[in-house]
Specification:
Layout (H helix, E strand, L loop, with lengths): L1 H19 L13 H12 L2 E5 L8 E11 L2 E10 L3 H9 L6 E3 L7 E4 L11 E15 L7 E18 L2 E2 L7 E2 L5 E20 L3 E25 L9 E23 L1
Length: 265
């Protein structure tokens, strides 16, 4: 509507000049529509966006994302990167005291047996080592102007977090006591799979883009933790210390807020 009004206003003085001239005069005016059609031109020619997540360090994920526009209303985003320590998960799990995590220890749960090693998500003796991650997310843009504007997506993320911790050993300063200080290295890991529905808004500028999103869905966790256990069996007899690796798993609701910054071409 704004363009039509502008063209009519520019035509009025031209028509008046032509009527006042005794000779027939044809006047042609060409308007530069580039600034009006920039959005449409962008949507039809710019098909690729490379992005990164500036807040990824909070969850220990460092991916590079690539979004490819398939048509005016549909695109697919993929991501690949490495992982490190997940600070957000550590804070949440420590606050909840590892609730809803199912540990598969190889002893009777009714026995008075306790794992003497550091709990999962604590990092006094444990440290993160590089892992990997990948993501895939088909997107449907509401305004048929991909990759700009509001969108709805279905996202699958897989994240592999690797750790190393120190095993139990005899304390050289306290005979008969075990400690994790200076013990042999033990490797642990945790696999996280997220399936989420994502709603977001993608602002596309001249060459840069900003992608805001909110996601909700299901998280499945499977991991392996080192243990060293002592205590008493169900008959109150002391047990020989147990050492090894325990599997654990967790299924929980997942909520995610995200922001990505990108370059489109």
């Amino acid at each position: 509507m704004k363009k039509i009004i502008l063209m009519l206003l520019m035509t009025i003085p031209v028509f008046a000049i032509a009527q006042s001239n005794s000779k027939d005069t044809v006047i042609r005016i060409e308007l530069d529509h580039s600034k009006y059609d920039k959005k449409n031109k962008k949507a039809s020619t710019e098909k690729n966006i490379i992005k990164f997540s500036p807040l990824g360090f909070l969850t220990g994920s460092f991916p590079i994302y690539y979004e490819r526009v398939v048509n005016d209303f549909f695109s697919v985003q993929t991501g690949l990167g490495f992982t490190s320590r997940n600070y957000m998960r550590s804070i949440i799990q420590q606050a909840s005291e590892n609730n809803n995590i199912d540990f598969s220890y190889p002893w009777d749960p009714s026995a008075n047996i306790t794992d003497q090693t550091e709990e999962s998500y604590y990092f006094q003796y444990r440290s993160a080592t590089p892992g990997f991650m990948f993501n895939i997310q088909p997107r449907l843009y509401f305004e048929s102007d991909a990759p700009d504007g509001a969108y709805l997506g279905v996202s699958y993320d897989f994240l592999r977090y690797n750790f190393k911790t120190t095993g139990m050993r005899d304390d050289p300063f306290n005979p008969g006591i075990k400690t994790q200080v200076g013990g042999p290295t033990k490797k642990e890991h945790e696999n996280i799979s997220d399936l989420m529905a994502t709603f977001g808004y993608h602002d596309v500028y001249d060459h840069l883009s900003v992608d805001y999103s909110i996601g909700m869905g299901i998280r499945n966790v499977k991991g392996i933790k080192y243990y060293y256990a002592t205590g008493y069996d169900i008959n109150s007899n002391p047990i020989t210390p147990l050492e090894g690796f325990a599997n654990y798993k967790q299924t929980t609701f997942n909520f995610n807020l995200g922001i990505k910054v990108g370059y489109h071409f």
